[in-house]
Amino acid sequence: MLNHDLAKYVLGATTMIIAGGCWLMGWNWLWCLLPFLVFLSNVIYGSFNIQANYHIKSINGGPKNSNKIALTFDDGPSEFTPRILDILKENGIQATFFCIGSELDSKKEIAVRAHLEGHVLGNHSYHHSKTFGFASTKKVYEEIEQTNDEIRGITNQNPRWFRPPYGVTNPNIKKALTQSEMTSIGWNNRSLDTLKEVPEKVVQRVLGKLKGGDIVLFHDSHNRIRPILEQFLKELEKTELKIVSLEELIDEKAYS
pTM (2 decimals)? Predict the structure, then answer.
């Protein structure tokens, strides 16, 4: 798939070629709509699929030839996060929590515990609004920096990782990340655990496609995550895969 900048050049070149054919060869001018429809489809797909790296180069996984995976949790901290921390501590697992800034502000003690127990706090915007993908560069930058301030207040370090809400990317988010000197972190194994399904179904979905190098996406923002995580870890013991920190998996530092 072409990235956004290259796709624009291809659109322009293709449109000129078709326009020339319409002028010189008598083609139907409706053919000129074709490259725009293809371009629009490309933009929509690329904007809503973080793994496409269409607007932003994201880190969506680690080496595929390893037996290592990493766990990430989005949308916390919440009232359900402490139990997740208990489970992770019991199993000696380090995870990455992509936190909403406003939740950090109201549930700071939970985030402090996560940090002290060795987990990474990543940036997941300040409000996690459904309209975040339509925000201006200025607004995106402000939300990133607000959340970074919250994380710095807990860790005394500068966070480097950002996960876009809903995995949506666009040129404005790209510009804001450049200004903030942040790295976009995606995933390649999405649990869809926020759907109201029984834990067994969620676990089987993750395990069915699980492979070395995977960044697994869970959410610590709902009450079903505890049984999901417990069952997942139990089933994982039957495989040769092991959980490591995201820093180790992708060989990147979470803070600067």
Answer: 0.88
